[in-house]
Design goal:
By secondary structure, the protein is of the alpha+beta class. Helices cover 29% and strands 8% of the residues. It has one domain (5-117). The strands form 2 sheets. Strands 1-2 form a two-stranded parallel sheet. A two-stranded antiparallel sheet has the order 3-4.
Length: 126
Amino acid sequence: MVINALDVRGLYVGNADAGQGGNATLSQLNGNTSTDHLAGMQSSENAMAELSNGTGGTYFHNNNDLLGGLKSLAAAPEYIYWLAISLKDVKPNGTFHQLKVKVNKPDLDVQARRGYVAPKLTSSRK
């Protein structure tokens, strides 16, 4: 399964302080600071990026064209190639194995999973 993600916040640059129209008094009362808020925003962005990139998907962010982002994420790729590998010689120990897909044309965008977890044998299959 491929997961695409869209950051609906669009382009953001952090928090506004009181001089920029923000409410400094409210942030002082609830204990939140601009740094805390920005760190939280970056953390959620990192999670969405990891989720989409880890499944071979696309992460649309830092852009205010949300309709364009939805269209690009929902559009079918122009070409699809399915690659398969044999797991015959892989030890069934539940470990992660990295995959790397390369193409020799610089203008192509490759979407691929970063790897897979080898299935672990259960006691009934040993």
